[in-house]
Design a protein that fits this description.
about 325 residues, 7 strands, Cellulose_synth, Nucleotide-diphossugar_trans, cellulose synthase (UDP-forming) activity, glycosyltransferase, EC 2.4.1.12
């Protein structure tokens, strides 16, 4: 059976000609300019000594700007247009599930409202909600971030099918005010236990008939005496926690770095896997499959014991 393309590429021939002519003219002008500057070096020594420093500074700046211009021509050399065919996408039930990782650390440097806007925009992706799982990593263990995720969950659920834009705007203003009010008289500690809280399950009860993505706030345990490896450590925790909750085959990272498990680990000896990935049997089992974990199927929960264990400081001790 022939596979239909999801997009086609069209070369913009006229723009190719215009861009390359411009590059030729600009390069010719630069060549004459450099020739003129280099000729200065062969002038009488009296002239060179009196103007050498300003001349060299100008020449150096021209070289730098020319180099930047050359780098900028890469995408102009062969411009194309893409035509997409959304109607050829797979049906919803055939699409793979996706885990979305969003990481934040300090609400004073990364305002909670901005982070929650990222969460809300990700939850609004045009993708089957039952196959979309949001994980917000809070490196600072901030009550404000946890409160913000809770409020974002409430706002998303209350406005998901609302068509009145004015009412949505009013709810959003109330959502912003709630976050700003909570921020007052709050202190945050950098020494905190792990917190893994599920704001809402993928599918809300049948009475509401509202489908929403899974939303989880993950805050790993931190102690001043233990190394935490910054963002890399945060994504290690997200990978471990998500693997026993949703275990999607694809990961979308927003505004952060990425960490992936080694695909060659499948089929490796169990003891050897534990040397690299820790002692959690549920996490090890998740490496060999791309399906929903037993922990998340049909359960309503706020905190899970296994993600707490995976987010603890001691979990990585003894691993490679």
């Amino acid at each position: 059976m022939e596979t239909l393309l999801l997009n086609t590429i069209h070369v913009q021939n006229l723009l190719v000609i215009i861009n390359r002519l411009h590059m030729l003219l600009h390069s010719t002008a630069l060549a004459f300019l450099f020739y003129y500057r280099l000729c200065f070096l062969f002038q009488p020594s009296e002239t060179i000594e009196s103007h050498s420093l300003p001349w060299l500074l100008v020449f150096a700046s021209e070289i730098i700007l020319s180099f930047i211009w050359i780098l900028d021509q890469a995408y102009r050399w062969h411009p194309v247009l893409r035509s997409i065919f959304q109607e050829r996408l797979l049906e919803d039930h055939k699409l793979p599930s996706i885990d979305v990782f969003i990481c934040t650390a300090d609400p004073t440097k990364e305002p909670t409202l901005d982070v929650m806007n990222t969460v809300l925009s990700a939850m609004a992706l045009d993708y089957p909600p039952q196959k979309l799982h949001m994980y917000v990593s809070d490196e600072g263990g901030s009550p404000l971030t946890l409160h913000g995720v809770r409020e974002a969950s409430k706002f998303a659920r209350s406005s998901v099918y609302m068509e009145d834009k004015q009412k949505i705007k009013e709810k959003y203003e109330a959502f912003k005010e709630e976050i700003k009010t909570f921020r007052k008289d709050r202190t945050f500690s950098r020494d905190h236990p792990s917190v893994n809280e599920v704001m809402q399950e993928t599918i809300i009860d049948d009475a509401d008939n509202v489908k929403m993505p899974l939303l989880v706030c993950v805050s790993r345990e931190k102690k001043p005496s233990d190394p935490h490896h910054f963002k890399a450590g945060a994504f290690n925790v997200l990978l471990r926690a998500s693997s026993v909750m949703s275990n999607s085959p694809y990961i979308l990272v927003l505004d952060c770095d990425m960490f992936c498990n080694d695909p060659t680990s499948k089929g490796t000896d169990l003891l050897q896997l534990k040397e690299y990935f820790g002692s959690s049997n549920e996490f090890i089992r998740s490496l060999a499959q791309n399906c929903t974990s037993d922990l998340v199927s049909g359960q309503k929960y706020a905190l899970l014991e296994e993600p707490h264990f995976l987010a603890s400081c001691n979990y990585e001790i003894g691993t490679k």
